Amino acid sequence: MAEPNTNELDGGIALPFEKSIAHFPKQIADLEAEQIKTGRDFAAEIRQLRAQYVSMLRKTYQSLNPWETVQVARHPRRPLAKDYIDTIVKNFVELHGDRCFGDDKAIIGGLGRIGTEKIMLLAQHKGRDTKEKIIQNFGMAQPEGYRKALRLMKLAEKYQLPIVTLIDTPGAYPGLGSEERGVAEAIAVNLREMSRLRVPIVCIVIGEGGSGGALGIAVGDKIAVMEYAYYSVISPEGCASILWRTAEKAPEAAEALQLTGASLQELGIIDDVIPEPLGAAHRNPAEAAHNLEQYIVKTLRTLKRFKADNLVNQRYESWRAKGKFLEREPK
After folding, report:
1. CA-based nearest residue to 261, from 234, 238, 228, 294
2. Residue 158: which CATH number?
3. H-helix or E-strand containing 45?
4. Measured between alpha carbons, how far is 105 from 97 in angstroms, rounded to an integer?
5. Predicted TM-score (pTM) of this structure
């Protein structure tokens, strides 16, 4: 297999743990420009730099700690829900509103097709630039967002369409209006109703999977996390603020929370980890989208073989069995 082009591996914004390799793309680009300008042959030097860069990038990303994984999941250039929708969802038709209060832009929902599979898609979208982030409320849904999601999931059940959810949120919006309109109740209702839906449900964490905000659209038959995403009961900063009274302890909190895909799979919280390209999804969004699409299509084909009653029963048993714990004998 050919090594990827280093131009594709330039992450743009270097994360703190990437400082030792951040200079490689510029060095390579400078040599390429000098080669064009002067006509001198720097091919050997460029090849050597590329090889070193790829090797160090692979080594770095094979040994990320939980806090570094959180940083990757929050990378400004990481693909967001709309990026994946534009890339892998064909004939997408967005549907709006909860038929009660309003249309929450933090959750996108609609009909479309992934591969050959017709689906109902629900996705949390953070927004890319400042204007869009404000419109999307940074991916933090309010109760009307979860009620819109449930309305569309019920519609999918009516027409026997499988449901796919893409999760990317720091959490549900905790503002006064959100609380007044019953965000906790809206999430709780979604948990109950998703457990009963008689169609296949595939839930994938593509970036941040924060607390009940993520869980509100994450009860499914298969739960997956992309390789450099995270899924947690609370953000590392929030956990650190509670336990140590300072957000500066976030790295220690991330370690304790066991929030990476590998740890979650070992603990039985999730079913699968979807691989990302070398250097994470922000370095090769097209390959990341391809991996996501392949996983969704393969999983839906498997789940569609089950009868509705069996699907619901297996979902119930799967959720009853999630997680691992230790019991201490009473003294």
Report:
1. 228
2. 3.90.226.10
3. helix 43-62
4. 9
5. 0.90
